[in-house]
Specification:
By secondary structure, the chain is of the alpha/beta class. 47% of the residues lie in helices and 14% in strands. It is globular.
């Protein structure tokens, strides 16, 4: 019997715009919205980063897709209907038009750390060629490509249309992502349209969040799994059973009842953000570089390798000293991570995690490395994570996929030279340099 095409009779009204339509968003924010008791009132207009195929495929399926929750023993399938409209990222005209809708209350973002286009001080990098191109396009009304430019263009369209207040909710691994988004958006507005600045300050809330759900790439066999269940779905999403979302900030025009899916609203998201950033993301980076150097392919492979498992434990022993949460909570989180990482049916590749290391290492590894050395400890666990990345830059393990890597790769022969560029304050620490040098020899 042929599989049935996904289709719906009605769709929820669009009250959320999303930038960064991809697998993680569809496994996380879109799932939380679908799980809300008022989901029928909160449709999402989702825009890809730049590509067209996913938006085209979702539009052909009325925005519907199948979420495959992959546990260690079985799959659970759920059709998600919260994406009411899907657009390619280069459709700036539709982005501006969606942002002018008066009923729109929330903008969510799922983008990479690099997408914020920040300079060394955390502000907008106005020397970036794409930022400069967006500044020109903003003034001419042309298409925008960067996240700060698209946000500023959308918010300016809303201002001119008297669209009213809105919350911008950042859903990524960047620490303090709400403040970071506000900074680059305001910097862009300063350069492009100063009249936009007071409107943003009076009408836009930037919400900081911590997000967590492992979501590997979809494979042809995953499409077959859904087809075998009776649905013709070209773009299903695979994810793990675990999910977490912690939010801090205001929603001036309301929001869905995300609590029904387990979302938590707190006064200070920082400790939860740091816990996830250092233990999960930092652990992922260590395993991505060290594990691939040992010929392993997935996180489950790496955590099942006794040597990598010991290195991960050593990293966590150092990292937990710098997370301001109760020891019992941190111990429970470590146990949960081991269970999640070991799920053999979640094929989370080390090569996928290894991408964009120049953006990830400074926020996932350096805080622990600095803290350990300031305390007079050898920092072997965090030094190994950095050494593994240096070996990666030298060509060990997963291929380098990182636009920011060349300056570091040019210096990768000498760990001190890498440190001089990455963390100049640590480059004079001869004990640390010697330890990193020793560990690169061990790994490479």
């Amino acid at each position: 019997m042929p599989a049935e095409r996904l289709a719906r009779a009605t769709r929820p009204p669009v009250r959320i715009a999303h930038l960064g339509l991809g697998n993680f968003f569809r496994a996380h924010q879109a799932w939380y919205t679908a799980a809300a008791p008022d989901a029928d009132r909160w449709g999402i207009a989702a825009f890809t980063g730049r590509s067209r195929p996913l938006a085209t495929a979702l539009s052909a399926q009325d925005g519907l897709y199948t979420l495959i929750v992959r546990g260690p023993e079985r799959d659970d399938l759920e059709v998600i209907g919260s994406v009411a409209e899907a657009y390619p990222g280069d459709d700036t005209a539709s982005w501006r038009a969606v942002l002018t809708r008066r009923q729109l209350s929330v903008v969510t973002l799922t983008v990479t750390e690099a997408a914020y286009r920040r300079g060394r001080g955390g502000g907008l990098d106005d020397r970036d060629p794409e930022v400069r191109a967006d500044l020109a396009a903003f003034r001419s009304g042309g298409p925008m490509t960067t996240v700060p430019g698209r946000l500023a263009a959308g918010l300016n369209a809303r201002r001119l249309a008297y669209g009213g207040p809105i919350a911008v909710v950042c859903c990524d691994n960047l620490p303090g992502n709400g403040a970071a988004t506000a900074r680059v958006t305001l910097d862009f507005a300063t350069a492009a349209e100063p009249a936009l600045l007071p409107w943003i300050r009076d009408n836009v809330s930037f919400v900081t969040t911590m997000v967590d759900r492992i979501t590997p790439r979809t494979t042809p066999s995953d499409v077959d799994v859904v087809g075998s269940a009776g649905h013709a779905d070209e773009v299903p999403v695979v994810t793990e059973p675990f999910t977490e979302w912690v939010l801090e900030g205001e929603f001036p025009r309301g929001r869905p009842g995300w609590e029904a899916g387990g979302a938590r609203f707190v006064a200070d998201v920082m400790p939860h953000e740091l816990r996830k950033l250092l233990l999960l993301n930092g652990g992922h980076s260590l395993l991505a570089y060290a594990g691939s150097a040992r010929g392993l392919e997935t996180i489950a492979d790496a955590v099942g390798d006794p040597t990598c498992r010991a290195w991960l434990g050593q990293w966590w022993d150092e990292a937990v000293r710098h997370v301001p949460l109760p020891p019992g909570e941190l111990a429970d989180y470590r146990s949960a991570l081991l269970e999640r990482f070991a799920n053999p049916r979640i094929r989370h590749t080390l090569a996928q995690i290894a991408a964009d290391g120049s953006q990830k290492i400074p926020i996932r590894v350096l805080p622990v490395l600095r803290g350990e050395r300031a305390a007079g400890r050898p920092a072997t666990g965090s030094a190994r994570a950095l050494a593994a990345w240096i070996c990666h830059l030298r060509g060990s393990g997963a291929p380098v996929k990182d636009e920011g890597a060349p300056p570091y790769a040019e210096r990768a022969a000498d760990p001190r030279d890498v440190l001089a560029l990455l963390a100049p304050d640590l480059a004079a620490d001869s004990t640390l340099v010697d330890e990193i040098t020793r560990l690169t020899g061990e790994l490479g």
